[in-house]
Design goal:
The complex is a heterodimer. Chain A is α/β, with parallel strands linked by helices. Chain A is built from eleven helices and seven strands. In chain A, the strands form two sheets. In chain A, strands 1-2-3-7-6 form a five-stranded parallel sheet, sandwiched between helices. Chain A has a two-stranded antiparallel sheet with strand order 4-5. The radius of gyration of chain A is 20 Å and the shape is globular. By secondary structure, chain B is α/β, with parallel strands linked by helices. Chain B folds into two domains: 181 residues, Rossmann fold (3-Layer(aba) Sandwich), CATH 3.40.50; 130 residues, Rossmann fold. Chain B has a seven-stranded mixed sheet, with helices on both faces. Chain B has a five-stranded mixed sheet with strand order 9-11-10-13-14, with helices on both faces. A two-stranded antiparallel ribbon of chain B has the order 1-8. In chain B, α1 packs parallel to α7, α8 crosses α12 and α9 packs across α10. The chains are: A alpha/beta, B alpha/beta.
Chain lengths: 344, 328
């Protein structure tokens, strides 16, 4: 029997409006705010011992993770790392994110991976591995499939600046550049790879230089400027969809808290943290919306109240689940071969 | 008597037929397109299917496998090639952390239908970095399937089964067998199931378990031993993960003696696991300790020809071990 892959369900020419409407700007505001509020809520829940493991906060980096995933097509692919709560906020039901963190039986991964390994097949977000940078290699393979099948979709991958020193990441960007694959490589330069400063990772400050060596188009931007991120990513995505190849975007940003919730991050100077908190992407975007009368103080309150209710509902959903029966540990190893339960 | 072809031609034919049947199948690897592969396993395929079905990759093994995995996540059936098993190490992260774990870490939501073809094995004068047998690295990784054919019929049938399998399969092909082994191979479509081992020769005194080159040499030794009055039952393992315990245990229960052959270094190899299974499950049936004949516990096969001969479990050495075991 002949096997053929399914043909794309969308038109080949995709409208790529770089300019957001006022409504869309508000929608995007609600999304970055949702990421911030959810993140702060879950930091508290972790401290209260409500879920196991640890928690990787992305507070301060909302623009770099949420904005690129806003308005992607369902067939587009996202390869996040462990700090990209924002990618999932933009693309995945909140309940599923909360359930993932609680690792109960109703979590998308049935509690097998890790609280912050956000992934969800219906949203085309692959659950990340903790081997740094590997998701960029997977996203390159996804983009290769899109190119082979002549489909107009894109594959995004997200890493920190630290991952760009990793060999496999370099193999991926190089191959993507050679074959002009529909990739967008987001590099979030938050200055610190856990506790190692960016100056020990690269001999330059702008990580978009990494693109030059492989012949890829690269750009460095203020990753805490919501509209700048939107504009840059939207044009990179449009280029990718039209066969013009991949883009590397360095987004300069900062994580406000430690690598994980058990890291006091005392390797950083308090002045540095304060400097970056003043560049808060959400406060800046909010000011822009208020100043330009795209958002009123009353609307802001309404949005906050609505998000708070949504988040509490998601927490309730997550806490309402039970841990899966321990025997589920034996499942999902193979599609057609069951691992034997040991006699013990 | 049906059509007789070589082991390598059986591999090429399987790739060709499956690419014609299923447009999701594509190949990626070093020197596989324009050049047709360093051993010519992919000869003519790029010309026939185009440069995006048979992709000449840069020297980037992590990418070769990782791009395959990524494409598999969105519905392709990739068959990346690792030119020599010795070069699989840069791709380890993709194989053991991604391919092996994606189904598990996503609670069964995603799967990775991927076949990594890996050219392995010694007795070709390849030296340190063209002779290795590192299959045991992967047999320790639940989530992978590992197969290794010993004849052209299985080479084609196992490769077709592997490409159609919903999970990642490492398909080791032994370079010593490429052109030295010929056999009957049906021209049409068929699969050899992943999992079952096969009794290649029945016998009553000793069970020999082997795969790939060691199976070929084990069979040769068994034929010669027969004339000396030692009757060996020879099992071709074919699938190293998951292991077909049943076929091995049934045979050992009958013969009471097991000789396990392995080309790789002895310590913690595949046969260490088979030995443990036999002693755990049919200890009462054993008339002698399980014996292993394996490669040396040295890093790989050293180059100079006398070194290589000294390293390998040759037919003579297999016969010597079998006589010891028979006399025990």
């Amino acid at each position: 029997m002949k096997v053929a892959y399914e043909k794309p369900k969308v038109e080949k020419t995709i409208k790529s409006d770089l300019e957001l409407t006022n409504e869309e700007k508000k929608e995007l505001y609600a999304l970055v705010l949702k990421s911030r509020m959810f993140d702060e809520r879950f930091r508290k829940l972790f401290r209260a011992g409500r879920f196991a493991g640890t928690y990787f906060s992305g507070v301060g980096q909302e623009a770099t993770a949420v904005v690129p995933c806003y308005k992607l097509l369902p067939q587009d692919f996202v390869g996040p790392s462990h700090r990209e709560l924002g990618c999932s906020i933009a693309r995945m039901p909140l309940r599923q994110i909360a359930a993932q963190i609680y690792a109960r039986s109703h979590s998308p991964d049935k509690g097998k991976s890790h609280p912050c390994s956000y992934g969800y097949k219906p949203s085309n977000i692959i659950t990340p591995a903790f081997t740094i940078g590997a998701q960029a290699v997977l996203a390159t393979g996804v983009a290769l499939a899109f190119k082979i099948r002549k489909e107009p979709y894109v594959a995004l991958s997200f890493v920190g600046e630290g991952a760009t020193a990793h060999g496999p990441w370099y193999e991926a960007v190089n191959f993507s550049a050679v074959h002009k694959l529909p990739n967008v490589f987001v590099v979030q330069n938050n200055l610190w790879g856990e506790s190692v400063h960016a100056r020990l990772v690269a001999a330059f400050e702008d990580f978009s230089h990494r693109a030059e060596g492989v012949g890829m188009f690269g750009v460095s931007i203020d990753g805490n400027d919501v509209l700048k991120v939107w504009e840059t990513v939207a044009s990179a995505i449009a280029r990718a969809r039209h066969g013009e190849g991949p883009t590397l975007i360095e987004m300069k940003t900062y994580r406000w808290y430690g690598h994980s919730e058990i890291d006091p991050a005392d390797y950083r100077q308090p002045e540095e943290v304060e400097f970056w908190k003043k560049k808060d992407p959400i406060a800046r975007y909010e000011k822009y919306l208020l100043d330009n009368r795209l958002l009123s103080p009353e609307e802001k309150k309404r949005i906050e109240a609505k998000l708070e209710a949504e988040i509490e509902e998601a927490v309730e959903y997550a806490e309402g689940g039970e841990y899966a029966p321990a025997e589920w540990a034996l499942e999902d190893v193979y599609a057609d071969f069951k691992v034997e339960a040991p006699d013990r | 008597m049906g059509r007789v072809i070589t082991y390598i031609d059986a591999i090429t034919e399987a790739l060709d037929q499956e690419m014609a049947r299923d447009e999701r199948v594509f190949l990626i690897g070093e020197d596989i397109g324009l050049y047709g592969g360093v051993f010519k396993a992919t000869k003519g395929l790029q010309k026939k299917y185009g440069e995006y079905r048979v992709i000449d990759s840069p020297i980037s093994e992590n990418l070769i496998v990782g791009a395959g995995i990524g494409s598999a996540l969105v519905g392709m059936r990739p068959v990346p090639e690792i030119q020599f098993a010795d070069f699989v190490s840069p791709a380890m992260d993709q194989i053991v952390q991604q391919a092996a774990k994606i189904r598990y870490r996503t609670g069964g939501a995603w799967s990775v239908p991927l076949v990594v073809r890996i050219c392995c094995g010694g007795d070709v004068g390849g030296g340190l970095y063209h002779s290795q047998m590192n299959e045991a690295w992967f047999v320790h990784c639940p989530g992978l399937k590992v197969v290794m054919p010993s004849n052209p019929h299985d080479a084609k049938g196992l490769l077709l089964a592997a490409i159609r399998d919903p999970d990642p399969v490492l398909y080791f092909e032994h370079k010593r067998l490429y052109r030295s082994v010929k056999g009957e191979v049906p021209e049409g479509d068929y699969t050899v199931p992943i999992g079952p081992a096969e009794v290649k020769k029945t016998g009553k005194d000793i069970t020999i378990v082997a795969y790939a080159l060691m199976l070929v040499w084990g069979m040769e030794a068994a034929e010669k031993l027969e004339k000396e009055g030692i009757s060996c039952e020879v099992i071709d393992l074919k699938t190293l993960l998951p292991i077909d315990k049943k076929t091995i245990l049934e045979s050992v229960k009958k013969t009471g003696k097991a000789l396990l052959l392995q080309e790789a270094p002895k310590t913690a190899g595949v046969m260490a696991e088979i030995s443990a299974i036999i002693t755990e499950e049919v200890f009462d049936y054993l008339d002698a300790p399980v014996m292993r004949l394996a490669g040396l516990d040295v890093p790989p096969i050293p180059f100079a020809p006398p070194y290589e001969k000294f390293y390998l479990p040759t037919v003579d050495r297999i016969m010597k071990k079998a006589r010891q075991l028979k006399a025990y």
